[in-house]
Amino acid sequence: MNDMHAAKAERTKRVSLKSQAYETLKRRILNCELKPGAAVTVADLAVDLGMGRMPVLQAVERLTLDGLVEVMPRKGVVVSPVSLDDLVEINEVRLLNEVQAARWAAERATKTQIQALRTNLTRMKEALSARDVADMIALDSEFHALISEAAGNSILAELLANLHDRSQRFWTLSLKVPGHNDLVCEQHAVIIDAIATGDPDKAETAIRDHINAFQSNIVDEVLRR
Which three-class secondary structure string do you get for the chain? Predict the structure, then answer.
């Protein structure tokens, strides 16, 4: 019996390490700590994370399925690059789906969900005042997740969660542009107002303007470089 418990504990530990490695590496990629195009080895990642190679290899397999890394001969693990083509394709799908989510949120959001959106905006303004870009990025992601939740469709929420993950590296770039963060807070306020007043047409226009402004800001930033 003790052997069975020990074996179960060891399996749990392996799963925990694999999940820890995956979440840590994913966060570093999405926040651009591991920059697009960067090449790293599994051995270096294992040392950096303070764990063995196996959980790191398993994490890399998941990240490969997510499209965030590629395993290349003689280069190791390469962080997938980003391009304006990626941005345009992601935003085309966001416009098709997130617009509908905003409309449903305006029709279905509860008072608790609306308050959660308002609390998020308050915290985002605090992060803006503190110039805490990392917190801004996290709160921006949370804001869009709250809209998906308020829409009341779990399948759509899952689809948008994947799109938002794929957008986050662009968000990191966008939110580092001076002045853009103020615009983001203003746009979020308009979206919240539309949802709170139960106006799906206004919510659609507001979220569409928000997504288009995001794309324009990224394109302008890339062209300036």
Answer: CHHHHHHHHHHHHHHHHHHHHHHHHHHHHHCCCCCCCCEECHHHHHHHHCCCHHHHHHHHHHHHHCCCEEEECCCEEEECCCCHHHHHHHHHHHHHHHHHHHHHHHHHCCHHHHHHHHHHHHHHHHHHHCCCHHHHHHHHHHHHHHHHHHHCCHHHHHHHHHHHHHHHHHHHHHCCCCCHHHHHHHHHHHHHHHHHCCCHHHHHHHHHHHHHHHHHHHHHHHHHC
